[in-house]
């Protein structure tokens, strides 16, 4: 039977239980409890019950061991290890026992000693091999499985002695296990959790080896068996009171022994000074209460303890890898906690904030240069923009084959984009592929935000604070926080009073949203709204779009990529990448026409603009003449061409005029690419509200009130954009020399040198920071250029014995003047765009991207570097 068939029949059993068809007495008695478990556990229990086997406590130990072993045979093999070695240790009382050292493929960053469960009577290291390997792979620790002596052949304290001897053996052999001294973690499940807790107490009492963390998975902590769970049959799935009695009777038949902390760690008089602990429990487990009580008692004694209860799970779920999906979830959770814990105790060379494309590539580069590096990321995975923006229709507006990393030719060749403009899920998949390929996640701490970063002038290091309570000391602090990652919270009165559903495009629910049958309002008509609106309109009963400023949008003409064009690009990728780097915006085709718009007659111009339009390339219209973005008359010609296109796409003339932008030059707010955007307004269920005529007064509990009255909605979608360029940086309390806050320094607008460095903030780098080309370019081209430059700078500092580098005030001021002059040569400052901070009330108005072009900018950065980092001070 295949695994899938197995699940199919298991699930059928679960349904049968629900329908009351299964006649097993045990199941009938506990049917309502079993259904409280998740489906996989329910199905597993049902299958087990259908076998009609007696409980372990009704068997002889040998028989029970065989039965337990049979379940373990269904676990899939664990991941490959760099090495697996079994050794026999001679314990302090002369008895021998086996340990298995599972070494992960990378250099181990910890040694995790795992004591298996089984009531001190059952189980062995072969049965825990899969789990051990999974732990090694996920945590990056060498895992040492311990085959301690079992009862009743060897009663208490034999197992506890072996467990401690395993610890001292690991401590003595740590360099051969891990290559260097690394933190030791003691871990175990059930009776193994008991042994881990006991070992931690003994190490403390005897001043034994340092233990960095205790991982106690539903540990047995008290032989008194008097916590509420023992009296409640609802909690007794897979492990019940009679079986616990059977275990204790075999392990410590002498009731006096059970009162000793060596058997019942909860009986210890003083729990202070124990290593930090992670206590994992299951909701329906007879051991839940005693495990959590032990965690709480340690907490009360001042030990840092995290208690995590897995809802809808039963005893032993953690140790059934491959059988229960919850085991994988719990393993990932434990992995993240261990990541976090190991990180707490480390100092690193560099901290990178953000794991979008910028943070990912920066991590890869610094690792290659041998720097110990940690990335802190708020999300629970990589991808940045493409992790957060999951609204319907989200896709790239620069051709996918061009919007991709160029730094690794193999990556470039192995990845195949499917569409001209790939949708968000495909780009996220690409980011995840990059993370897997370069094994990035092991140095990324997810679900964690950096809240503060303080520069310590005495140590010349940054102290980086996170919302999980960590403080990480780093020589370099690299902000890869993104230009468009700080959501602009809806700045409309009453926005938080709406009682229906609200969505923000940049924080879209992962499970998606079904608008079927609903009355939906969208607020905003920027790039996000333009992509989402056609999809929402198709689903919703009615859609009302609230537009303040219309956008210029052209059709993307998106389509699947043809095999021949993929191959063509892959064959010529190197030349293409070179062209990207040497182009104004990193988008080399269609090439910029160096003729002014006035130089051509109406017919030729129309033909040229038609060709640009048909290309479906974002920059085609602004590249059609050299002066589109610098000469109002030239811009008017192209803008009017686009307005005519809008008029042709929208049937109702009044709606078309409302949608046609007239208050700012084309290209000076980010232009958009769409699929059926304007055509959507030809649908009967779509309505456009012109907020210039009827501004929003407030959002009410039931809808949106404009000056023309109130409309009620089931859902409101805020496509209202971002606090761009500076938002993500200013939301962190970054303080440099003399405790200067970045936010204060930037009170009248961001000041940087090259968008890479800030005077007064040594060793702080900003990837695609303000005053660099960033958002005016193909962002991946700009990200790669910055990451390469920063990495080269750090290498240069190390080669030349410099500890710190920072921009000088003079260089920063000169760069600001150059930026302003460059922007003022164009039409850009005329628009109330987010480029200029106009979308955020109260934000200072300065043009925040370098307009001189990616090509020119690259040349400037390279010249500065080759001139010994002119404009920077080093120490
Ligand atoms: P991001 O991808 O924004 O990643 C920054 C990361 O930092 C985020 O994951 C965030 O969670 C994390 N972070 C921020 N602050 C903290 C903190 N304090 N603590 C911990 N973590 C933090 N650009 C293009 O060139 N072409 C496009 O087609 C394009 N399409 C886009 C579509 C959308 C919907 C949006 C919003 C932007 C688009 N962009 C596009 C710009 C896009 O942001 C960049 O292309 C690129 O993805 C940015 O990568 P990044 O790593 O610099 O930043
Ligand atoms: O945000 P936006 P976005 N009341 O700021 C309106 C990239 N991106 O998320 O213009 C009423 O552009 C606001 O009106 P106005 C791309 O770089 C790329 O759409 O301020 N309306 C505007 O219409 C893009 O530029 C893609 O008058 C309010 C809209 O909300 C950037 O991300 C896809 C309002 C916000 O538009 C941001 O795009 C998506 C209020 N109080 C994003 N506040 C691609 O296609 C704001 N608005 C690749």
TrEMBL record:
Record's keyword terms, sorted: FAD, Flavoprotein, Monooxygenase, NADP, Oxidoreductase
Cofactor: FAD
Coiled-coil region list: none
Pfam families, per the entry: Abhydrolase_3, Pyr_redox_3
This enzyme's EC code(s): 1.14.13.22
Superkingdom to which the source organism belongs: Bacteria
Gene3D superfamilies, alphabetized: alpha/beta hydrolase (3.40.50.1820), FAD/NAD(P)-binding domain (3.50.50.60)
Active site as annotated: 190
Keyword Phosphoprotein attributed: no
Molecular function as annotated in GO: cyclohexanone monooxygenase activity; hydrolase activity
Protein name: Cyclohexanone monooxygenase
Organism: Candidatus Phaeomarinibacter ectocarpi
